[in-house]
Amino acid sequence: MEQKSLTHVRIVGAGLIGTSIALALRAAGVNVWLSDSDPRSEALARDLMGGDNLFDSVEELCIVATPPDALSDVIATELKRNPALRVMDTGSIKSKPVLDVSTSELPAPRFAPTHPMAGREISGPESARGDLFQGRPWILCLEGVEPELVAMVEEVVSLCGANPIRRTVAEHDRAVALVSHLPQIVASLLAAQLQGADPLDMELSGAGLRDTTRIADSDPQLWSQIIAGNSQALRPLLINLQSDLSQAIQSLDHPVSMQSLVENGRRGRAAIPGKHGGKARNYTYLAIVIDDKPGQLAAIIESCAKAQVNIEDLAIEHTPGQETGLITLAFSPEDSVIVAAHLEKEGWKVHPSR
Amino acid sequence: MEQKSLTHVRIVGAGLIGTSIALALRAAGVNVWLSDSDPRSEALARDLMGGDNLFDSVEELCIVATPPDALSDVIATELKRNPALRVMDTGSIKSKPVLDVSTSELPAPRFAPTHPMAGREISGPESARGDLFQGRPWILCLEGVEPELVAMVEEVVSLCGANPIRRTVAEHDRAVALVSHLPQIVASLLAAQLQGADPLDMELSGAGLRDTTRIADSDPQLWSQIIAGNSQALRPLLINLQSDLSQAIQSLDHPVSMQSLVENGRRGRAAIPGKHGGKARNYTYLAIVIDDKPGQLAAIIESCAKAQVNIEDLAIEHTPGQETGLITLAFSPEDSVIVAAHLEKEGWKVHPSR
Fold it and tell me: What is the DSSP string of A263-313?
């Protein structure tokens, strides 16, 4: 495998992803030329990069970071334009651009489908940062891609500080349908049921409703393209969900059926791995009542740091009409014993759980 | 309204709720007699209360804190046993015990249906605390209840430090169906889809999947009774969801339909009120890359405290295979400007958003 270092890269699409890659590569000394069909985004992105981005040579790699709708057209244009150019994309769905390249008799080995998993709740060049991908997974679907391009892609991922994960195109699209697109649709459908609700009802909302609907705040235009683009992998999952929902409605009055429904959910949830992609998560939760004012959260986190434990997760719950809050902290079972004793000794009101 | 102070209270059901009420009342100097059909729970709860709980007089109030299944029987037994006794319950559904009392020709004005909203992710007397209800909403359905009992109920809520919220029985059951029971069923159904998934797929799970399925970890036996008990209010909500899901499956390939789906979700989510039951939430989010090790979270929270801002919400995201983490903090728009500048000055890598 050739070990040539990248010197000239062109990026098409000056959104959050394209501009963040541009910033990371530029910081690493790569010459970057960033363009966008929207002049405002292009100008803003160039400003963020510290001025002009003229080239003194022809680029070796083109990174296509447009919205899903425009991907295939831009990839085709680039592959046709320059027979020596290599192209990678950063879209959320991989089967469509790959299919479009192969059915257009374009040189498939010169196209690398990739997907950096970052930027979930932010968008636009104004949110871009060179460290956006630091430590985040970056999926690479490199079957059939020529070795020179594989090396380039790996260099881009490495310069961005991301964590490369190899998957086939089919594996990628199936996985994101399940772990990303299905939860998005479900959260949106659930949140949609709240439209027109009586504000008195909504006053009783708790952390459960807020958590289950958080991602319903996502960008409608981007997500409409992602969902429609991965409909093939999504449809069987939704049909399965539909069948389970119909069955639940049928047996809503039967505690035994409802118990299996909740038990099945617990079993499924246990399949979500813990941090660092390792073993399945097994946290112990500590609930702590605090005054809902600046400094309280800091003090409690400081106490945990003193106990030399690692906080795995944290949730803050506010009560309507009150200045009291509830903090729930997740720890490994071993850490939880240490930290619970430490916090109690320091005078915190700790409610251990499960 | 009589302003007599409670002196003798009996509590039936030594679970999380009953034992926590017992601890709060005992701490306030009320004589409490706690019983449970399970001798182990009763013994444990009595230990937690610091020994025996014998009475020197007849109780004025009986608080029924059994699982939903047993509520109506216990309420009826108590109302029949002593014509002077007043009874309140703490169950999650209000129409069923009220219906059961009224159709049994029991003295309805001597029964007060209430629902303390606390204890979501913990259970059993071992998790009980006298401050469990501190600052939490406690729904009271007091239409038709005699003034003496109203005063007693208000005193219990006040001694527990909870925030009394008046609703009719119908309003209560409709509200919790929407803001609590529907999200529970949806989270359980979604999480159930993960059963048997390829572990390689699950490795790509992010915060979105974790948040949407968190409450799927709830207690199956308790929730089966809650769902079945509130099926009347839940059914139309689930049928509506089913219809929206079917429509989504039909139009999965159409970006315009998918865009409305996500837009409807955003509109519904905007109906969830912010903290303290006030205006709709309007947070600004800051994403911060940290080393995933003890002390980092503490340092960042400490920085926020120094800037004198209030953290409204916080999420921790771990990346598979990496020791880097991403912390997302939510602030009021005004606070976010102050804290972002402060954090940047202190050298944190802050990604402002929306």
Answer: HHHHHHHTTSB-GGG-SBP--EEEEEEEESSTTHHHHHHHHHHHTT----E
- B170 touching A (Cβ < 8 Å): no
How far B57 CA lies from chain A's nearest CA (Å)?
Answer: 33
pLDDT at A354: 43
Range 236-275 of B in CB contact (< 8 A) with A: 237-242, 244-246, 248-249, 252-269, 271-275
Rounded CA-CA distance B230/A297 in Å is: 37
Q: Determine the distance in angstroms separating the CA of A211 from the nearest CA of chain B, rounded to an integer.
A: 5
Per-range mean pLDDT, top range of A54-58, A337-341, B140-144, B290-294:
B140-144
CA distance A82 to chain B (A): 32
Residues A74 and A153 occupy one common structural domain: yes
pLDDT tens-digit map of A149-178: 999 999 999 999 998 999 999 999 999 999
A159 within some domain: yes
B294–A276 CB contact, under 8 Å: no
Considering only CB atoms, which chain A residues are within 8 Å of B266?
Answer: 188, 191, 216-218, 220
Tens-place pLDDT, residues A234-260 = 999 999 999 999 999 999 999 999 999
Q: Tokens 């007043």, residue?
A: B86
Select from B204, B237, B261 the residue whose CB has the most chain A CBs within 10 Å, as the one to mutate to test that interface: B204
Q: Across the strands, what pairs with A317?
A: A326
Provide the domain limits for residue A250: 172-269
- Residue window 97-116, chain A: list those with CB within 8 Å of chain B: none
In this structure, what are the phi and psi dihedrals at residue B308, rounded to the nearest 5 degrees?
65, 35
Residues A263 and A209 in one domain: yes
